[in-house]
Amino acid sequence: MAALIIIFAVYNTFVYTQGTSNTTPKMTALAIEGEKLYQTNNCTACHQLFGLGGYLGPDLTNIISAKNKGSFYVKAFLNSGIKSMPKFNFTEKEQDALVQFLTEVDQCGYYPIYDATIKSTGWVDVKYKNQKVNNND
Ligand code: HEC
Q1: What is the pLDDT of residue 137?
Q2: With a 6 A CB cut-off, is 79 part of the ligand 1 pocket?
Q3: For strand 124-126 and strand 116-118, is the pairing parallel, antiparallel, or unpaired?
Q4: Potential cystine with 54: which of 43, 45, 116, 124 (Cβ 3.0-4.6 Å)?
């Protein structure tokens, strides 16, 4: 019994004092400014990031790296508006901040994830951006 308690204590100490391998992502100051603009202008009421948000407009997770899209494309939409999307009168600096925010969101991952395989063990192997090692086994 004493051995079990010791093992339990050691195990818990180990588990609860380990740093997680996924360190908190850090955004640049400009991207944080962009995030605030994204929130205060309710982009999320119509758009999704990683599938979450309103569904009037398309998902913007990978808008920056998408083929034939990117920063100028985003700015064009902000300046002109389209259908139910209002025209925003952002300054050049504010547009850059929004683009920087979307760029850093884009660097986090893919949405939707097409590149996933279900292994015989039941684990799902997902391809992440900037992935160096796969320690999911
Ligand atoms: C009232 C709803 C609404 C709001 C608020 C809104 N949008 Fe949109 N947005 C849309 C719709 C709808 C479209 C799709 C138009 C189309 O392609 O037919 C769109 C398209 C876009 C596109 C092009 C997407 C693509 O894949 O072609 C971008 C980029 C975009 N919006 C960015 C933003 C940003 C950034 C904000 C906040 C500052 C914002 N939108 C706020 C409705 C909205």
Answers
A1: 44
A2: no
A3: antiparallel
A4: 45
Q: Residue 121 contacts by C-beta under 8 Å, 6 or more apart in sequence? A: none
Q: Which domains does the chain have, with CATH numbers?
A: 29-106 (1.10.760.10)
- What pTM did the predictor assign? 0.81
43 lines ligand 1 (CB under 6 A): yes
* Other beta carbons less than 10 A from residue 121's beta carbon: 9
Give the pLDDT confidence score for residue 17 in this predicted structure: 82
CA distance 105 to 91: 21
Beta bridge partners of 48: 53, 59
From the CA of 88, give the closest atom in ligand 1. 38
Nearest protein Cα to ligand 1, atom 7:
85
